[in-house]
Structures are given as structure tokens and as C-alpha cells.
Write a structure and sequence with these properties.
By secondary structure, the protein is an alpha/beta fold. Helices cover about 40% and strands about 25% of the residues. The longest helix is centred in the N-terminal third of the chain and has 17 residues. The site of zinc ion has 6 residues, from strand 5.
Length: about 425
Amino acid sequence: MSTLLRGRTLTFHRRPINGEDHRAYSYHTDGAVLIEDGKIIAHGPFDALTMAHPNAEIIDHRPNLIVPGFIDPHIHYPQMQVVGSYAGSLLEWLNRYTFIEEQRFTDEAHAERIADLFMNELIRYGTTTAVAFCSVHANSADAFFTAAAKRNMAMAGGKVMMDREAPDALTDTAQSSYDDTKALIERWHGKGRATYAITPRFAITSTPEQLEAAGTLAREHPTCLIQSHLSENDGEIARVAELYPEDEDYTAVYERFGLFNDRALYGHCIHLKPRERAAMAEAGAVAVSCPTSNLFLGSGLFPHKVLQEEGVRIGYATDIGGGTSYSMLRTMDVGYKVAQLQGDRMHPLQTFFAMTLGNAQALGMEAKIGTLDAGSDADIVVLNASAMPASALKMERVETLEEELFLLQTLADNRMITETYVAGVPLKSALS
Ligand code: GUN
Ligand code: ZN
């Protein structure tokens, strides 16, 4: 059984150099995506596809825009009930709210409930893949991967490893975090669409012994992702310097333990020194920008232009619950404004690339997700820029694709997500 989604289709081949770089993407005004068994078989002009596949069931999404599902490369699923907690800065926010909330995940039923609600929320916002931090408890990762498998979603995540500078109820040990992570990798990594991410929370909450264990896991499981936090906040950076006096800077800590390579995703990376940026570029590690979180916690402005120019790989993410929106569209809107403040302007073609193929490349998963190319998994979002009265009004003045993309980003709202397909199955409309 094959299905033909009809609408305007947009997919990227590479990052657009600027707004005139029309060869970086394919756009069909009467396009279609052919899906079979959860995979994309072809995309292109509707006429040609329907002629070649006359028996395909047609789902007509005209005049809406069909794009690859959004990818969120840094998010904390146990923080759904932390969002919007009133705090001064990162370390206060962690100690006062986050480290309290995450203790609830000792309770399996709680973890299962939140993991289910988490997947549903992502689907509402058009996010089809995320890389998530779970809590310290192994069962929180089981709940996460179980909820993803139920929906056949391509999710990455891992239990956080943290053995100091947090409440006792929220700490493991170097050995137990190694053992638990190894068992979780064996249970989940590569099963269905799951990817395990080895997850030392950050240098403050891990002893050298635990980072050593994380590095060993990374060496033993080279196809796993690695995720952590780096250079988010001044107080954090100062504490890392106290805890790791022998390392020349924050980045050097992760480098020393073998956690700095092209499978590693580091949230924030706001205050990196030139040596650290050069090390990131050299290692191919990814700097994940979390703009709503950085503004909410007053952490700083992500130096997009400098990192880009220096060849650092970049991803964009929500960072719920430090972040304040589940929406990748809203995230890019705020990222755009952060760049504006630094005299740098991202073009909407670049921001749509970033949410789709760009973030897929950050995860090394571009062969499977992030495009509408044949052979990809059919994770697809249907967008309607006229979904709200105010956006419909503005659409009366929109003449080009670029203007429409910019409107979607600027007035970002989940009502604009008409449908979210996961492996070819429409899941948003099925939510209550
Ligand atoms: N650094 C260590 N843990 C966290 C977290 O949960 N959120 C953010 N924003 N930064 C962190
Ligand atoms: Zn984070």
C-alpha cells in the first residue's frame, strides 16, 4: 500500500549560503511525497508521481507546505513540570527546581506518564526526533524508549550520569552509572528506531572517575551519541575550573576523557574561548544552541556567526525545561533574534534547513531523517501558515516561499502544524 501526500513540498540538500542559494533546496508548488511501509519512496511534482503510481492513495494537503519533521537535538524530558520556574541563573535553577523535580522519576509510573505526554507534546509541535536527557534513574530511560517505540519514533536519549554536587537521591556512582548505561545500551541502542546517547550531565556533577567511565562507554560503543553541557553560564564555568584545576579550560575536561568527537553534542557553548572553539571544530563536536533557554536563564547569546565561520558544527534545540517552548519554529524565531542582536541575520531558508537537515547532520542521521529524499524514513510535517486569524491576515501580504517561511517562524504556533507523520503514520490528528 502506498500513499501520496499532495501539497507544496520543500526539502534541503545542504545549508543555503544565503537567501539566493536556490540550488540548496527543492521546492515543488504542486508536489507530492510517495510513502510505502514508513519510508519515502520518492518526492517531486505531483503529476509525475501520480502517473507513475496510479494506485497510491492520495492525501490532499493543498495548499499547505510539506516539510521533513523537525529535529530537536537537546531537550530534558523529566523537566516538563520545570518549565517556567522563576530563577536567577543556571545553578540556582538547577538546585531549586530541577534537581527536586527529577527525583520524582524514581517512581516508574511517573516516568511512564511523563514520557508518554512528552512524545505527544513533540508530535503536537511537529518534532519527530529528539535527543533527550532522561533522569539519573535507569527506569526513566526505559520509560522514554518505551514511549518512543510505541509510536515508532526515532528518538535518542540516555540516563544522566551524575555522582556529585546534587542531592543524594539524584546521584549514582561511577561504577553504577557505567553498569546502568551499558545495560541500557544493550537493551535499546539500535532497537527499532532508538539511539542511545551516553549522557554525563556536565563536568560539575561528574567526578573524574565518572567521566572516565563515560569515555570508556563511548569507546566501547562508538555508534552511540554522547551528550552533555558546555560553557553555558559564568558561575558554572568558574565551578568547573575549581573542580578540574589541572585542565586549561572547560572543553579540555571533556577532551581528556575521550568525550569530544563527532558523535558528541554539547548544549549551549556560549562562552567558549578561541582554543575551545578550535578544539570543537577539529573534533567535529556539535555546539547545540538553545536560544529560549539562554535568554530565560540569562546565560548569554550564542555566538552563531563566530562558530559558523570557524567551522564548528551547530545544532538548534529547545532545551525544555530551561527552554520555554517545545516549538522548533519558536526556537528558530528566538535564535534569529539572538543573531540579530549580534549583527548577524539568519535567512529563513537557513533556519528551515537548521530544523531539518541541519539538525539531522548534527546527529549523523541525515541518511534516515531530515529530508524528503527517497530512502528516508517518512517523518513529515504539514504546515499551514494561515492557521490563525492574525497569521492568515499577514499571509494576504506574503508573496514568496521565503516570506511564508519567515511568517511561520515569527508567529510560530502549534496550530500551524496541521499534521505530523511518524514513519508514514499521521499521529497529530490522532491525539485528543
Ligand atoms: N547543565 C546541567 N544540567 C542542566 C540542565 O538540566 N539544563 C540546563 N539548561 N543546563 C544544565
Ligand atoms: Zn540541557
